Amino acid sequence: MKRVLFILALSFPFLAWGQDNTKGYYKDIFMDSGIMLNSRTDLPVTEMLGLSMEAFVSTPHSSTKKYKFTHTDTLRQRELIAGSPIDENGILLYPDGQPRFRMVYMNGGKAVTHGRSLEAAGRQVLRDFVKAGGSYLGSCAGAFIASIGSVKPGDNTTVSHTDTYMGLWPGHAVATRLNKSYTAVDIVADGPLTQYFDFDGRMHIDSVRHNGGCYPNLETAPKGTEILATYNTKGRELERDINGLPVVWAHKESAETGRVVLCGSHPEGARIEADNLGLMAAMVRYALAGNGTPQLKAVLSPGEPRAMTNRRDPAFAPVGDRQYHHFCIEVPKGVKHMTIGLEGILDADDFDLHLYASRKGFAYAGESTWCNVGEKVAKTLEIPDPKPGKYYISVFCATTVTATTGKYGVEYAGRTDVLNGVPYTICVNFD
Question: Pick from 84, 94, 211, 195: which is nearest to 142 by CA?
Fold first, then answer.
C-alpha cells in the first residue's frame, strides 16, 4: 500500500502553497481519534504531503462493541488535551498559549458524546488553539462539533449545543440523515481548493463516502463563510435530496486566528483513490495556509533584562519545544556595538536555545544575518557598528521530547520537562 501511495503522490500535480507560516511549530498535525470518534491511527494524506503528525487514539468502538472505554481513555484524553502536571498547557498549546501544532484534524464519530468527553477544559483548549492561530479540519462529527449547534431537517428545529460543541465555526450544522451512503462532490470552480490542489480540470469527484454527515445552515452562517464544494446526488436513489448543498466550507475570523475547514463527508480514509485523496489534500493545505500570523512578544528596551519565566502571563512565558519567541528593538544613530544576551534561570540552563537576529523581518534559522546555535541556554550575539533602525531577534528552543507510538497514540519520553517551557532572560545592550 505504501508503495502505491508513494507513486500516486508523485503523480499528483500541486499548486503553490501561498504565504502560509510553517515555522515555529512542534509538528504539523494532531489527529483526534478520541472517545466516541473513529479510532483512526493514520491519515494517508500526511504521507502524501510529507507532513508530520501525532495522534490520540482511544479504545475502538463499533455498533457491536459499544462503550468499551476505560478510565484510562478518559484520563489519557484529559491529560493530553486539557493538561497535566508535566504538561500544564496540554499537547496542543505552548506555555504562552500559542499553537504547538499547525492544525488539529478531528475524525468522524459521535459529536455530542465526544464533545462531552472533552469536558469544558478540553473544549476551551481547542477554542484557544484556533484563536491563537492554529487551524482546524473536521469531517462529519468533526464538523458538527466545530459548530454552535445543529438543525434537524424537516421541522428545522435548532438545537443549541453550548455544553458539548465548540463554536469554532459560529454557525449551525444541518444533519443530512443519510447513513452508509456515497455521493458525488463538485469542487467550486473558482474556489480556494483549486489554488491548493490541481484537479486537472476535473471539478467532479464521482464517489465520496457519507455516513450521517452535515451541511451548513447558510441562513445563519457567520459572515466570511466560504463554500468550497457541494454535494452532487443527481441520479442517485437516496432517502433525502441534498444535491447542490455545501459539503465543504471554511471560515477564518481574522489574520491572527487559524482557519476552520469543515467537511460533511469522509474523504480522509482515501489511500489510492486519486480524486478523494486530492480533495483531502486540498482541504489540509487550505487549512494550513490559514495559520495565524506570527506575533511579537515585545519591543525590547536597551539595558533592561526581560525575564521569560511566568507561565501565567503569555507575554512573559517560557519558550516551548521547537517554538520561536520573537522580539524587536530600535537601534538609534551613534550606536557602535550591540550585544544580545541570553541567560538561563537557576537550574534550567541545560536546554538548547538558539539565538537569531535579522533586519529583514522575523529572525528564523537559515534566514538570519546573525545567529548563535551553541548548546545550553546562555549565549550572546555581538553586532558591531549596527545600522540605525529596527532589528528582529528570535529565541528558538531546539530541545524537544522523544515521541513514540503506543496503545493510545503518541507517548512522550526523554526531555518531557521541556513541555512546561524553558525559562530565560534576554537583554540587549548598546555601546
Answer: 211
